[in-house]
Amino acid sequence: MIFFETEADPTHWFPLPLHWTARDQEEMVKWSLMCAEIVRHRHRKWWYRPRRIRIAERFLRLAEAHPVPNVPADQAFLYAGDARRVPQPFYALAAGPEGEDREAGLRTMVQADEENPVRPPDVVEFRSDRLGRGLRCIRYFGSGSGSERDLNASLNYGWWSEEHRVYVSVRTVSTDVPWLMANLAAFDDFARSVWLNPNPE
Fold it and tell me: Can you give the CATH number for the domain in which 110 is found?
């Protein structure tokens, strides 16, 4: 199995184990408390009396909710750069080719050609020193119905790794599109920090 590694700030980005079950509650609690202490320490200079337990509860809820059955992922990372929000999950996946054209396969990985009833996706070339040329696609979709329909978005990064002969994707989904766009530079930096390790220690 190929592992996703990152050089992103470890006080902002946290690997989320996907193998836990309900029987691993004690491990999940320990992990949540550890993450919360890192976040609290990182933000203590400006945040008045950050509550470690409240932060830990947010991490724990995410640990208990994953893996999400309808989100294919080999690994997941949580963005906790904004300590006042629930950490944002990002999902990493490596997939082998199925004989398709490389560009077509890459567009599939970033959902560039999915049905987009709300508005066309924003698809741009995206380069990484680690993974080379890829694509970034912001895909918009709605939830709810009628006048209450809300705008959501998925942020998708994708590459073809010639070295490992796999497609690589990193993606997240948000119901808060303005927040997603406001943090796009931080998410771009994270995507560029990702690399593949076929032989983890």
Answer: 3.40.1000
40 belongs to a structural domain: yes
Q: Rounded to an integer, what distance in angstroms lies between the CA atom of residue 27 and that of residue 31?
A: 6
Helix axes 25-43, 52-65, angle to 10 degrees: 140
* Degrees to nearest 5, angle at CA 107 with 135 and 73: 85
Q: What is the percentage of the chain residues whose pLDDT exceeds 90?
A: 70
Domain count, the chain: 2
Buried b (16+ CB within 10 A) or exposed e, 74-99: bbbbbbbbbbeeebbbbbbbbeeeee
- The DSSP letter of residue 67 is S
Judge if 137 and 183 occupy the same domain. yes
129 shares its domain with 181: yes
pLDDT tier for residue 48 given thresholds of 50, 70 and 90 = low
Whether residues 57 and 79 share a domain: the answer is: no
pTM greater than the 0.85 cutoff: yes
Question: Residue 15, preceding bond cis, omega within 30 degrees?
Answer: no
Residue 170 C-alpha from the chain's centroid? 6
> What pLDDT, on a 0 to 100 scale, did the predictor assign at position 147?
46
